[in-house]
Amino acid sequence: MDPFASALDQAAAVRRREVSSAELTRAYIERIERLNPRLNAYVLTTPELALEQAKAADAANIGYPLRGVPTSIKDNVSLAGYPITFGSRAFEDYTLPMDFFPVARIKEEGCPILGKTNLSEFGTRPTVEHGLFGPTHNPWNPDHSAGGSSGGAAAAVAAGLCAFAHGTDGGGSVRIPASCCGTVGLKPSRGRISAGPLLGEHWAGLSTDGAIARTVADAAAGLDAMVGHLPGDAYWSDTDGRFADSATPTDRKLRIGFTVRSSANVEDQVASCVREVARLLEGLGHRVTEGGPDTEPFRTPMQLVVVAGLGSLPISDESKLEPFNALGLALARQLSAIDYVRSVDAIRMHSRVVVGFWDTHDVLVTPTLPRTAPRLNTLGADLASAGDEYMDFVSFTYPYNCTGQPAISLPLGVDSAGLPIGVQLVGPPRGEALILSLASQLEQARPWSGRRPHIH
User: Fold this and answer.
1) For the whole prediction, is pTM greater than 0.90?
2) Distance separating alpha carbons of residues 257 and 288, to the nearest angstrom
3) Which domains are delineated in the chain?
4) In the annotation, is 207 catalytic?
5) pLDDT for position 239
6) Is 74 a catalytic residue?
7) I need a surface site. Which of 62, 78, 330, 405 has the fewest CB within 10 A?
């Protein structure tokens, strides 16, 4: 079966017995062995586990929507009994005896786990270049970054090395690499997926798990495969039905705002793509106006929360940290509990202002990133300016980690060099169904599934 076939099509073929999960899994294992040395998307492969799970999926009669479809797990989430390195030499030999919540749900869904994917150390850089395993290369051009911090996951999906992928998103880490690699990246609402059983919350609730896929419906189904919460979770958003059922083109006429304004310089081709999408939406009958909320007040408190989160990690040997995080840890030690609480309060208070934009709008459309995938070893290369460069790079994504709203990146354009351009849709609180239906309409009107990187 075509490794680029949609995850839902693969699942349907397994249900019809046209292909077995074991056959799909073996095909992906072979493809990973052949192509991963060039991409460095996977940092650990688990073929024995995947084939065992595939055989169980083939024998099962339970009709989970993605049963038998191979996937991957980002290496900052525990897969019981396997290393969880967080992309850091400081945790190179670290293992935990339990599955984190999304992994347990994916296992329950019956999806064979092919392995764990690359990330920046602790997910603090929006590119995968400087951590334990070295850079992940962009399948569209290996001289360019795959984005981050879920860069390995997005590169794996883009190169046909899994059907869909798990990622995490604390400031855009699902949407950023999706934009760089030409895939769909879905960050759900805060509380859709439990942070348990080990973590209370991550980065004051800014970070969540999410799905990377080739189609909108696959991303929705991937989210369905992970949703849920544990008793006592700090945040939860109960679901009403399956998100995959919402991934059909909307017939509603929506109030859509769009903006290309940011603290960063937005490349002309990226801004043009967003304006083309705005015109397309207007042509589809939606009411489209230019403008968006002021999210700049999030910038400083967001940085402080991330640095404080870094400082809370049980790092026994600081000499093993890459330089950006060594600097971050030093900054964390200068912070007080009062600084942290004030930063969280600032985020919560300004969130009320930002979310007020959705009182008069249904969806906000923005670039996912102000530029296409940068060349490796360019963004953040100078440690003195790296923090500001990174915040500019993620200026359209991180605000909606602060508010907890759902957002999705869609591969709606390509620049003159052939690199993907992502366009972001941001929905109202708990508005996944709304942005999925609009994303499906855009996918139908401006399809991307025929675009594939030339990697063999």
Assistant:
1) yes
2) 6
3) 7-445 (3.90.1300.10)
4) no
5) 84
6) yes
7) 62
